[in-house]
Amino acid sequence: RIEPKGSEWLKEWIETDDTQTATRDPFFVKLRAIANFEDLSPEPLIQEKKRHHEDMLKVYKHIAQKAFKEPLDRNQAIKKMVLQAGLRREQSNIDWCNECLDMLAKLQAPK
After folding, report:
1. Mean of pLDDT over the chain
2. Fewest Cβ atoms closer than 10 Å to its Cβ: which of 47, 51, 87, 110?
3. Which residues of 49-65 are buried (b: 16+ CB within 10 A; e: fewer)?
4. Nearest-CA neighbor of 100 among 38, 50, 40?
5. What is the pTM (predicted TM-score) of this model?
6. DSSP the chain
7. In the prediction, which pLDDT does 54 show?
8. 100 contact partners, CB below 8 Å, separation of at least 6
9. The dihedral of CA 7, 66, 64, 48: what is its sign?
10. 24: pLDDT strictly greater than 70
11. Do residues 68 and 76 lie in contact, with contact meaning Cβ atoms separated by under 8 Å?
């Protein structure tokens, strides 16, 4: 349950523009930096990122199996939408990591 004062603040926050994200993801800053050093491999960084997203995907799938029973009310439907976005984002990140690892493996393969 949200207290009245918290409810007011939350409604104001919901109406703010958040299309501009100014933060830089440290993972991508590190990955770009690695490009400057021949003696540093990006694979461990990417593999760790992949493991993190695989773990999160498992958590979200577990929640999805237990949390929503049809028919959904409005509250549950909105929460399910958010969870589905999380599932897709995690799977997309895993796919991207796999593509990166494949690309790096091809660079290292004998010709």
Report:
1. 91
2. 110
3. bbeebeebbeebeeeee
4. 50
5. 0.83
6. ---HHHHHHHHHHHTS---------HHHHHHHHHTT-TT--SHHHHHHHHHHHHHHHHHHHHHHHHH--SSP-HHHHHHHHHHHHHHHHHHHHHHHHHHHHHHHHHHHS--
7. 98
8. 42, 46
9. positive
10. yes
11. yes
Measured CA to CA, the distance from residue 107 to residue 74 in angstroms comes to 50
- pLDDT greater at residue 57 or residue 108: 57
Residue 37 tokens read as 């050093």
Please report, as a single letter, which amino acid is at residue 12: E
Q: Find where tokens 């918290």 sit.
A: 6
pLDDT in the model for residue 62: 95
